[in-house]
Amino acid sequence: VVSLERLNQVGSVDVDLGCINVGAGATLSTIQAAAASNGWMFGVDLASRESASVGGMIATNAGGLRVVQHGQMRQQIVSLEAVLADGTILLGTQDAPKDNAGYDLAQLLIGSEGTLGIVTSARLRLVPPDRNAMVALVGVRELAVAIRLIGKLRRAECTLAAAEFFDDAAIELVCQHTGAARPIAEMPWYVVIECVGDQDLIGVVSDVFSEFSGIQDDLVVIGSDTASARRLWNYRERITESIARVGVAHKLDVGIPRFKLDSFAAKVRASISGFDSASVTLFGHLNEGNVHVNVLGVDRHDEKIDDAVLRLVAEFGGNVAAEHGVGRAKSAWLHLSRTPEELRTMRAIKFAFDPKGILNPGAVLV
Ligand code: LAC
Ligand code: ZN
Q1: What is the pLDDT of residue 366?
Q2: How far apart are CA 350 and CA 359, in angstroms?
Q3: Left (φ > 0), alpha (ψ -120 to 50) or beta: where does 83 sit?
Q4: Could you identify the atom of ligand 1 that is nearest to the CA of residue 284?
Q5: Weakly modelled stretches of the chain, pLDDT under 50
Q6: Are 106 and 77 spatial neighbours (Cβ–Cβ below 8 Å)?
Q7: Ligand 1: centre distance to CA 64 (Å)
Q8: Order of strands, edge to edge, in the sheet holding 132-140?
């Protein structure tokens, strides 16, 4: 076991270039604070910002709440330092963001879940901070409506910074756990959006909503100051902890073609209702079609439910690991989203980096 916890150095922000060098053990919130105090922002945000380390975020290509605006970890890396299986150190210290000098080894290591090398430090790209922000929570009957809505917001006079969805089971658990009141009448789905920019954001967003026949006025709540925005975000950010209070859930983190989300949700609920005492909560990242299927009430070692959900994902042309990685838990199902040719190529890469198979054995590829 290798712990990188003490590699937690956070370098000074290069204020002109918008970059920062950090050790793999630095936490996301430390990096966010360093960026903010120098007039910059880090482009990735996660609900687990206090505990997530940058090394883990790189190893899993973490996504989180702002992928629609700034992309995943993959898009935030200028260069990496990594140690390979035989002790070789790859020093990617150059500061030339445009770089086609051979294969992109850093991008290959990002998302490889520690199976190709151990990332020890990184030079991160920072982004300009958001100006004004406004948050809205919207109730919709179908996710297809919400997808068309965010398509309009992405073309409006503001920047769509986040678009997160959750079902009624999720909001019910959050209200029970946190004591918060329901923000609007009961609906099949809720979407939290955040828009940023210099404009009159409420005006821009209200115009988009009013042109949009699928959205009723009484199903929209707007948070324009920090406190009300935080209150709306809590309905989304506190889902995971609210589920954990009830029990250990089976968590399937999957990607579904976006206009098939409604039919996927219906099928997955029907499939889970066939398991005694199982209950399901669906939430996730709308613009990426990334659904977190959380199933409670099933023995934690019983993999039948995982198998049923992941096979359904494959039928929908989705992927079995959208942002939490494959690890050991999902490796048996990787073939559902990858062709034999892709798997063969992945095995060849693994063998080239780690012929003895000592790095995170059993993860990703079985
Ligand atoms: C989230 C974590 C579970 O989106 O990925 O809240
Ligand atoms: Zn997520």
Answers
A1: 85
A2: 10
A3: beta
A4: 4
A5: none
A6: yes
A7: 6
A8: 220-223, 132-140, 189-197, 159-167, 279-285, 290-296, 250-255
Q: Extract the tokens encoding 172.
A: 């019910």
* Rounded Cα distance, 350 and 112, in Å: 10
Q: Contact at 8 Å (CB) between 13 and 78?
A: no
Distance CA 189, CA 140 (A): 5
Per 3-state DSSP, the chain is made up of helix, strand and coil in percentages (nearest 5) of 35, 20, 40
Ligand 1 atom closest to residue 283's alpha carbon, by position in its atom list = 4
293 has which bridge partners?
252, 282
Other beta carbons less than 10 A from residue 9's beta carbon: 13
Which residue is associated with the tokens 């992928």?
67
| Sequential DSSP letters for 78-98 | EEEEEE-TTS-EEE-----SS
Which residues lie with the beta carbon below 6 Å from any ligand 1 atom?
Answer: 47, 240, 292
Instruction: Give the CB-side neighbour count of residue 319, counting CA atoms within 13 A.
Output: 13
DSSP 160: E
- Residue 280 is predicted with a pLDDT of 98
Residue 274 CB-density burial (10 A; 0-12 exposed, 13-18 middle, 19+ buried): exposed
Helix (H, G, I), strand (E, B) or coil at 123: strand
Rounded-to-integer distance, Cα 173 and Cα 242, Å: 6
CA 50 – ligand 1 centroid, Å: 14
Whole-angstrom Cα distance, residue 262 to residue 266?
A: 6
Which value, to the nearest 10 degrees, does the dihedral of the CA atoms of residues 341, 347, 350, 351 take? -120
* Smallest CA separation from ligand 1 atom 3, residue: 240
Q: What is the pLDDT of residues 286-297, one digit of tens each?
A: 999 999 999 999
Between the CA of 240 and the centroid of ligand 1 the distance, in Å, is: 7
Phi, psi for 227 (deg, rounded to 5): -70, -45
Closest CA to 70 of 128, 16, 24, 20: 128
120-135 per-position pLDDT tens digit: 999 999 999 998 999 9
Q: How many residues does the chain have?
A: 366
Contact 133, 17 (CB under 8 A): no
